[in-house]
Structures are given as structure tokens and as C-alpha cells.
Specification:
It is a single chain. This protein is α/β, with parallel strands linked by helices. The protein has 2 domains: 16-45 and 415-517, no CATH class; 60-403, Arginase, Chain A, CATH 3.40.800.20. Helix content is 30%, strand content 20%. The chain has 14 helices and 18 strands. It has helices spanning 6-11, 37-47, 99-107, 126-130, 139-142, 145-162, 195-207, 223-228, 277-295, 321-331, 348-359, 381-399, 401-409, 473-486; strands at residues 30-32, 75-80, 116-118, 134-135, 168-173, 183-184, 212-216, 235-242, 266-271, 299-304, 335-338, 415-424, 429-438, 447-454, 459-467, 494-499, 504-509, 514-517. Helix 9 runs parallel beside helix 12. It starts with 5 loop residues before the first helix and ends with a strand.
Amino acid sequence: MKLGLGKIKDALKGGSEKNTGAEKKELNEEEIEPHRVEEVIVKTKTSEQKSEDEPENEPEKKHMIPVNRSGARRTGLIFFPAFDWAISPTHPEREERLLYTRDQIFEEGLMDLPQIAEYKPRLADFKDIARVHFCVPDIKAQATTPHLIAAGSCLVLADALMRGEVKNAFALIRPPGHHSMTVAHGNRGFCNINNEAILVEYLRKKYGIRRIAIVDTDVHHGDGTQEIFYNDPDVLFISFHQDGRTLYPGSGFMNELGGPKALGRTINIPLPPGTPDEGILYVLDALVMPILKDFRPELVLNSAGQDNHYTDPLANMRFSAQGYAKLNEKLAPDMAVLEGGYAIQSALPYVNTGIILAMAGLDYSCVKEPDFKPGMFVQAARDRQILEGVVSTQLENWNNRDSLVEAEIAKHGDFYRRKKQIFYDTDMIQELQEETVRMCPDCQGYVTIDSRAHRSINDTRIFGVSVPIYACNRCQEEAREEYKKRLNSPVYEYVYLQDKKADEYRAYNIRTKQETVY
């Protein structure tokens, strides 16, 4: 199924250097006996005290300094198809999903191009997962070995990027992750853990990267990534997707702008079904790129879903391989992470080849689907008017973000609360949540989540406390106290602490009275 890309063959000049230094890290967890829980918490709080000269809202562990990448010339690539993991033998998210892509990129010699640096995957640590998720009942239950390798592959490329070994990187991995939210009771939208969010928190903790933009180009709204960073003003989340009124997960509307202190940092772009290359590239040029220029992120990450393709069986869009390559060339992400895309033979081999060539700065003009003809999809005039209205509305929201935040903060007292209903379509779980955000004047505030999941035979109720990485000392102390207060509560099965500032993560089992520390 070769494309016959003569220009790729001409570019072959021998094998690229491959990184063999990425090793597996052992998973680390500690079982705490019930009578030691109080002692461990007290010791931790003592170790968290800071000297008076240290900035209050800084993480407690020093980070590594990223290397200047201006001299880097290669594109980092990891290919992890997870051939041993599937939701079911006939499910769209199954082993064969990247089979043709693997054949394509290896047969065409893309991995041997001097412009490509191939890296080996590794497992993510449990701690990497705990920075993002409250996994119920624990991480082992939600993250299989393929999930850990998919997330770990992103971290391998993040390290290569920060060390200046590559100019950009593309993680061709599965399982996907952008529907997975902070609380993970099971699989929803084919996702258990959120690779992109795990990558963001890793970059922040290890390298001190603060302002990050995530552009989600999957046809389905990236509701999990949006939820995780909804209250974070330092993460700009932009998602363009098929209109949620016509497609799962039924969200991603323009009024979803972010939490009170992060209004305008979530930008949703619902697209009419049937939108072709012209419409998506118009939105990119007229809305996404101006906002990115204004936000000035330290890094741009792309949740590179490929189910906007005109042959994808799960959606109704009209994007082509050429359109994807042009989008990537214009967006120029520092790193792309594969999400959805289920036309395993007619789309993914061509789209992935186009993206790889665009990221490597090579000619992608010869990458075309066998049945594609220029001009076969035309933007309807009515849909163009809809897109122009979306661009106008969201530019206004972006330009007024500071006044929106100011007005919203004035409506609330010490806490902001919202209730959510979340459906796990894969595992058939109904979840009810109450999220509470501390409206702190000195930082973005800590968050608590009271979550009840209803399955067919039983309910599970958990309580989670999350401290942001740049929390003030007062919020950190209050949050840890909230965690301690719930340890003896009979209404919960599990209680979790996520202290990103201290990089400390705890999960307490009320029934066994055992605490796991990551």
C-alpha cells in the first residue's frame, strides 16, 4: 500500500540516530498502615515549610532548565500501536487501528529519514498518572500496561524536546486519552487516562514550563482535557470539533469558557457537519492563530485526532490528508499526540504520513488518498456564515477575557461550586459530581470533587482534593486539612489528595484504612 513518494526516497541518507537510553522506570507506591496515617501527614506538613525568602507560590522542588532548541533540526517520533490492547475485538478502538499506519511509515522509510529521530517508549510512573487523575479505586484498575506506555511515550518525547535533541515531536500512540477527566471511574470515549494532561503536568513539574496551549483537532470535543484545565488560567485550551449537538460527547459549545478565574482560556469551536479543509483552515487562520499569538505560550501541544477525515466511520466531516498536513504546518506545534481516527486503511496512513512530513519540514504535496480529487468538497455558503459567527464570538470572548474574569469573581464568595453529570459510554457508568473551587485572592485556588458513580450493581462515592502547582501556602494547608477531615467519613469509599505543589499524591481506602502514597 505504498504511496510511491519518490521525494521521500530521495531524502533517505542513512539511518537516523536512535535513542536507546529511555529505560523503564519502576512503579512506586507505598502502603501505609492505618495507625501511621496521622504520623505521615504530620511529617509531610513539616517538610513542606518554606523559608521566608522563597516565593510563596512556587513549586517546592527545583526544576530542570530546558535547552534552547533553535539549533535542533530533527522531528522526534515514537510509534506505539498497542497491538495487545483493545476494548473488544470488533470495537473501533482495537489493535488494528494503527496497523496500516505502521506498514505505511515503515515501508516508505520515514523512520530512516535523517530528519527523523526515533525514540523508544517507556512506562509512565504511577506518580505521573496521580498528578492528573483520581483513579477509582486505584491507578492499577484504570491504567493497563499499554496505557502506561502510551503516556510514557509522550514523556520520552517531552524530555527529548526539553533537552534540545529535536525541534518538535509526534507521539503516534494508542490508547487515546482526551475524554478522560480528573476523576476516572472507568473508560469513556475509549479513554482511561489523559495522555495530553499527563504530559502537561510532567512538563510543569520537571521543567518549570508554565504557559501552555493545547489545540485539540479531534472531531470529538476534548471534554476531558477541558475539564482538567478548566480552572487553570495558565493553560489555554482550544478545541475545534463537530458540533456537539450532532456528535459525542455532546459538549464543546461557545459558552464553555473556563472557570471564574480562567474565563476565556477555554475556546470551543463547534463546526457544522460536512466542514471541509477550507472551513477548518479558515478557523485556524482567523481565530486560532491570532489567539495563540496573543497568549504567547511557552509550548503549543496538539491533540492530533484524525477523525475529521472524510472517510471516518464515526463522524461526518470532510477533512483530507492534505488539509491535515497544511493545518500542522500552519499550527507548528512543539509536540503532537495522536488521539482519535478510525478509518484505519483509508485515512490514517495518509494523514499520519502528511503530518510527519509537515513537522519534519519536508514536501508533503504528494500525500493524497487514492480517491481524493481537489475540489471534491466545497464549503457551503450557509456553513461559512456559521463559521464567521463562531470566529467573531470567540474573538470577542478572548479580547474581553480579563473583564469577564473580574465580573465573574465578583459574583462569588469564598467558594465557587458547580454540579456535573458525566456519562461513561464505554463502561455504562453514570457519575454525579460537585466541584468546589476555593476563590483565593492569591492563587487560582484548590479544588475539591465529591463524586458518586452509579453502575448497574453498586455505587461508589469518592472525595478528591487537588492543590495546583502554583498554589499559595494557605490554600495548600487548607486543602490538606480537607483531605484529613474526610479520612474518617463513612460516606466515602476512597479519599484522594493531589498536591501538585509538593508533588505528593495519596489515596486512602476507607474500608481497609490503608493509604497509598505515590
